[in-house]
Amino acid sequence: MTTPDSTRSRPSWRTVLIWTAISVAAAAAWGVIALARGEEVSAFWLVLAALGSYAIGYRFYARFIAVKVLRVDDTRATPAERLDDGVDFQPTDRRVLLGHHFAAVAGAGPLVGPVLAAQMGYLPSTMWIIIGAIFAGCVQDMVVLFISMRRNGRSLGQLARDEIGPIGGAAALVGVFSIMIILLAVLALVVVNALAASPWGTFSIAMTIPIALLMGFYMRTLRPGRVLETSLIGVALLVLAIVAGGWVQASSWADAFTLSPQTLVFCLVIYGFVAAVLPVWMLLAPRDYLSTFMKIGTIGLLAVGVLIVAPVLQTEAITDFALDGTGPVFSGKLFPFVFITIACGALSGFHSLIASGTTPKMIQKESQVRMIGYGAMLMESFVAVMALIAACILDPGLYYAMNAPAGLLGTTVESASTAVANLGFTITPQDLQAAADAVGEESLVARTGGAPTLAVGMSEILSSVFGGDGLKAFWYHFAIMFEALFILTTVDAGTRVGRFMLQDTLGNVWKPLGRVSWKPGIWATSAVVVLAWGYFLYAGVNDPLGGINQLFPLFGIANQLLAAIALTVATTVLVKSGRLKWAWVTAVPLAWVAVVTLTASWQKVFSTDPRIGFFAQRERYADALGQGEVLAPAKDLDQMRTVVTNSTVDGVLAAFFAILVVIVILNAAWVCWRAVRATEPLPSTEAPYVESRLLVSAGRFSSAKDADPTEDRP
């Protein structure tokens, strides 16, 4: 059997020249980034290195995985076609699905992680974001999406149970679900911090819900299939909502949309429940698709600004904090903490939940896993690069005045200026106040969490191109709203995925709960998920040490441990399905992430430094509490008790997650050993082949045999 790919002659000279030029440009950019010392480095080189590397990775490595490793087959019906129920399973236009998937996976990580990791310098962060995405993050997303799609959209936990066995599967089910709860809580916490006391952001975010509902009904009932038309209407309404947010902030309605963090917690819990139980076409898919326009548009606008302005990186390539581990933003040395701080921008376990949750139930053709799985992760990686640039172009004095904890900086510009000077950097009280005034804030001191720092960096770049200093405040608040929208779409999709996972697990005990069409089961499991992450969200909002400062290290570890579970499942499936020679594609990133995260877990549990170890921190505050002392930033004994409780919970969870992952990896290794030695293939849970009757534009490969005539259909 022949295909365009198998019969095509050598590439044309034009194709060779284009890819040679891309390779040379990317190599030159990497040379500047890696070798420049003691001289100014433009952010332009980071953008060029990223885009060139992404193009090469997608064109060659992603295609190799699709054709050789996965053997995608577009003659095979996907579960979206076979099980179409109009609620969870539904063939969805690949452009809409790409928007939904990207919006669902691109949350707080690519925005916040790189900003915090800027403390260690731009070089290690840039290398991990780009190289990690191409060879680890994108691979995980693409392979897990394919595996879940071949198994009727099964969740990651259920995949582990089916493919690895009862022991490792049970550990994976518990680990995946509990880790996901922590991830959703931290994502929601970033939203709360961004929207608290911000009527502009709250109003604009709230308006995306009715806009998405309108788009869903418009595309399903009023004008079916009119994707471009619906998109134009949605984008126009979104822009109007953003502009109207500024009007609301200056009007008498401002008080109605000025909400406390505690109130926002309850709003998010209610929204998460509603988003999880409504049909996917009604709210989730159109809202995420709508959000994607703003996400991609804003990041694209920021990239254009960087190329035009070519701002100089103010951060060193590798800072002293990366070597001695005494950074004020977070403690710990470059290895392993830069790799868990930058989680979602390079490799994110959370993505595997979406890739085995909503997306595999909506994909039309198998070849689309390349565009949706690998491509969406590349887009997120670029978001992380832009966030890193936004942080690294700031004056280091301002960066540390915003990101160091309040206990170190104090509450005034004078105390913050002195504290920053003690760190080896300089910013005057006048400059610090001027920076706050320029973006319309009363103070920027100790605005931890990464979101305000990113907003300041974005306002610096965008105001240099559009509007000048007079529009800095506008761009700052626009960026805050953009970040909240970016993250909230991950919370609603993640909650639905949590519901899928819980239904899969409880369905093993009582069959009706496993049916995705049984309404009582949907409502009950959705309520359990939102209440679980709502508890940790509320605890984070009221944490004296700051929810982000306390929960983000646990978030990073949990996220990467979840990636280890996903890559373990992927490697096991490849080995069991006779693809042993290609198992290195997932096994190599698995080995790396396992070493990194287990090392980080060990340090967070057993380190005697209270700045690093959770239990050391607990002991320090517990000893002071026993003597009736109050340690900053706690203000009373009740807050001291809160710190002790939260440190204990964090330490126990870090140890618990690590133990579960070790069990999963060991059990999977035994299964792989049995598969290699077995004379007959081990049982597979892959759905039987059914010929597809869906006619859509899918990809360049029409079937596995067409893609490579030497391979048999799996």
TrEMBL record:
Q: How does it sit in the bilayer?
A: Multi-pass membrane protein
Signal peptide per UniProt: none
**Places the protein is found:** Cell membrane
* Record protein name field: Carbon starvation CstA family protein
Q: What is its main location?
A: membrane
Describe the location of the CstA N-terminal domain by residue ranges. Answer: 43-600
Provide the family line.
Answer: Belongs to the peptide transporter carbon starvation (CstA) (TC 2.A.114) family.
